[in-house]
Amino acid sequence: MDGGFFLAQLDFFPGMQYDYIAAMQGQDQTQPTEEHPANVRPRRIPRPRLFRPRLVLENMSDRKIVDDYHLSRTAIYELYQEIRHDIDPNTARSHAVPGMLKLLTVLQFLATGTFQHVLGGNSGVDQATVSRHLAQVLHAMKKCAHKHIAFPTGEDEQRVIKQDFYKIAGMPNVLGAIDCTHVALVPPVEQEMQYRNCKMGHSLNVQAVCDANLKILDVVTRFPGSCHDSYILSHSALGKQFAEGRIRKGWLLGDAGYGSKTWLLTPFAVPHSDAEKCYNQAHISTRCTIERTFGVLKSRFRCLHISGGSLLYSPEKVADIVLVCCMLHNIALKHHLDIDIVVPDEVDITPPDRGSDVSMGNAVRRQVIQKYFSNPRQPLEP
Predict the structure, then answer these.
(1) Bridge-partner residues for 252, per DSSP?
(2) What does the alpha-carbon distance between residue 347 and residue 85 come to, in Å, rounded to a whole number?
């Protein structure tokens, strides 16, 4: 055996050290000695466990915190207090990973979209540990997502939303802008076709509704990429509330992929009259808030954008990641944390819906144009 190779093994197998030293001293390890009787095994000297230094939020500047986690110090502390009972360790071990550290490692992964930034920092944990923390923290945040994402049902709340939308381009009675966006994933082998989208990639098709300030009011994350936008809407809780008349005083704005409904207005593919052109201009300017919302969301949490690659998790966990990112997006808005949109615009190639209620939706659209856009010189009321 090569001597150099043998010596190198001592670093990996410390139990060999006694045998090797004894052999060098000419002792026969098969014979008992006074110091080491036959029925007593040589005592191994334990190697000390090494713990990497762990980051401490108090030692970081405000700018560094926002750069690394895309949330402010105050926002992180408030979030930690909300979920700490689900993520703090249940052991008194001195080296148990604190709940705050679990939260920070997950926030950094969501913000960067890669484990490399997390592992290369001062988290003091390895990738397997980060993966365990991800599941625990996602579960904790998912439990409180309903506190941060909720479609307003009160008249006062809805009135404020309508007024904010109206200020954009004079579009009246708008309760939300709706669209879908794809989040890339690696599909289960047996469901590959189900998750293949119209661009021949694999994804979840995520539906969201936002207000005029880019706050997410409703999100649906469970549908695979092959599902049409209108199918997701009709099977979502919010879509059913509108369709059943439980939400009456207002409408959503969507693109032509949805088809007009009595409670969802779409633009004209080819506007002819001046009134139709005015309507289209107001519709497009107002509805683009959902596109900006997706841009800000995916810029803030790069794990959701295709530039970071496909998420290597089950569809169920990817759905949880999307939901949590939407919740964190709203928390960031609450704390007035702006971020530049750094991801390219997504091209929507969703074919138009030809549902049975399109004709009734078109009739409502004509009424809206007649009432609000036939004489645009007159001031409009939301």
Answers:
(1) 176, 264
(2) 42
